[in-house]
Specification:
Helix content is 71%, strand content 0%. With 166 residues, it is mainly alpha-helical. It has one domain. Helix 2 crosses helix 3.
Length: 166
């Protein structure tokens, strides 16, 4: 804590260290998941540009999540709130990791929304810049957007093209 937060008052450091320790597995897992997806996406874009891709690029804007993921998120969130000890600890970390796919679903929704707009690149640059600067809060907002998108997609008619395969 002395190296990471030099401006933080000495009396607040144990609180911050306790919060970090509580969610450390989720923070490490989330950073790995985000970097794996980012690197895979950039690698695919590079391969497409070089004409060396073996498979077509996925339609990222059409991302769909399976139903069981929402169930995992709900069970983990309830376990983290209602249980103490190891079950609450694991539940909280699993809930945070389960939010990552919903963050990607929110990003897919943002990409779909800006498609065709004259300032699309500027909006996406601002979105990703905000994610880079204040990742936790921006990622949480995008994950909430992804959850809203997930549930609104559930209630579309199957023939409208917006239904989810699950």
């Amino acid at each position: 804590m002395d190296l990471l937060s030099t401006e933080l008052p000495q009396e607040q450091r144990p609180q911050v260290a306790g919060w970090w320790a509580t969610f450390f597995p989720a923070m490490v897992s989330a950073s790995w998941l985000v970097m794996i997806v980012a690197n895979a996406t950039w690698a695919q874009a590079l391969l497409v540009r070089l004409g060396r891709n073996r498979r077509p690029s996925p339609a990222y804007r059409q991302l769909r999540l399976p139903d069981w993921l929402a169930l995992v998120l709900a069970v983990a969130a309830v376990a983290s709130r209602l249980s103490d000890g190891d079950v609450g600890y694991v539940g909280g970390n699993v809930a945070l990791v389960a939010l990552i796919p919903f963050m990607f679903l929110g990003l897919a929704g943002i990409h779909q929304w800006v498609a065709g707009k004259p300032q699309a690149r500027m909006i996406l640059a601002a979105t990703y810049g905000l994610l880079a600067l204040v990742f936790v809060w921006a990622a949480l907002a995008v994950a909430v957007l992804g959850m809203v998108r997930f549930w609104t997609m559930r209630f579309r008619r199957g023939d409208s093209g917006g239904g989810m395969e699950g």
